[in-house]
Design a protein that fits this description.
Rossmann fold; 30% helix; 419 residues; five-stranded mixed beta sheet; single chain; binds iron/sulfur cluster; Fe-only Hydrogenase (Larger Subunit), Chain L, domain 3; alpha/beta; four-stranded parallel beta sheet; 12 helices
Length: 419
Amino acid sequence: MKGFQAQELTRVIEINSKICKGCDSCKAFCPTDAIDGKYGAVHRVNSEKCIFCGQCLVNCPFGAPKDTIDVVDKVIEKLKNKQVTVVGTIAPAVRVAIGEEFGIEPGSLVTEKLYGAMKQAGFKILDTNFTADQTIMEEGTELIAKIRHYVLGEPSAHHLGPLPQFTSCCPAWIRYVELYYPELIPNLSSAKSPMMMAGALAKTYGAKEVWKVNHEDIYMVGIMPCTAKKFEASRPEFESAAHYWSRQGKKVSYPDVDVVLTTRDLARLFKKLNIDFKSVPEFTDKDNPLAQYSGAGTIFGNTGGVMEAVLRTAHFVITGKELDVLEFKPIRGLTGVKEASIVMKDAKTGKEITMKVAVAHGLKNNVKPLLEEAKSGKSPYHFIEIMNCPGGCVNGGGQPINPMGTSWLDKGKAMFPWA
Ligand code: SF4
Ligand code: SF4
């Protein structure tokens, strides 16, 4: 199919023609006008325009759009196979939403229960918060190098992409840039998303040092609030662990992340395994180095979380001091977009830098002016965080479906949390 690489998933969301009423609601949520069909007629998703975000799925009043990639039974089969070490990497936004599938108050943070249920199911854990910390270090280091080069005029030993730097952890946003703003591809951070870092880490360091198993016997499962992550895992460029081992002399080929379960899929898996989530004993996995993380990794799933974590890192490296308070202010006339500036004094040269950043969520309505500015070379920002879903991953297309809007946000405001 046009626009796809070999072995990539070409379709994640499909509309069930028997359920679709042609009401047009999904069109109001699709950021790319990927839904075809006249009012009153059955609608369909145009895969060549779709960015796999699942916003149509979580917002259709009739439940017509479906996630077509069902790997729950496949993961259960792997969990039962004693030869295989099944590692689950849990995204920050899953732990505030999974409880909802078991009658727990939406928005409850149930990390220890989730760890307990994962253990009972037979998973080893690599917390995505751990690799969110790695992503912050990578993105922060990249941003600092660009600031030193482009703003402070220092020479650079490496090729650096242009400013503003955009975040790269949301696969729907990446697909959007590739399809609709290819000129801005060089502006994307070169850091992989936390899920893809987790895959590479599990099949190298994790296999060797933590679980002490053959890397080929690791089955890596991303546990995500997101349908677009299913597409991301299928991208052929994510085979870093296999490249690493091939360089050690043994030619192998496998993906860093084998499959992705959404929050809804994981709840189904627990139910199929008769795991009673509410009464499962809590577990902290405190001896596992890959289940440790900072507060920065934890805020990754909220809009503004990546930005704040990266800025704190950049501020500390450039000034040698912790950042006190970071105040974001809404940008007039642009819903869902906030900006902040911080003044930093470079500890090495004493030069002052004013760093300007912006945060946007909800590709449907909010980002175009920011992108047009960057495209014309007139962006006033150094760093821009973009997440496809309104409010960030907490309202992702893989989260529990709530007829009043998704998941944990205040019900009346859930669809437009910034309103
Ligand atoms: Fe549109 Fe997202 Fe649905 Fe694709 S998954 S049709 S991009 S709303
Ligand atoms: Fe997935 Fe989060 Fe991006 Fe939504 S904002 S598409 S949940 S990564």
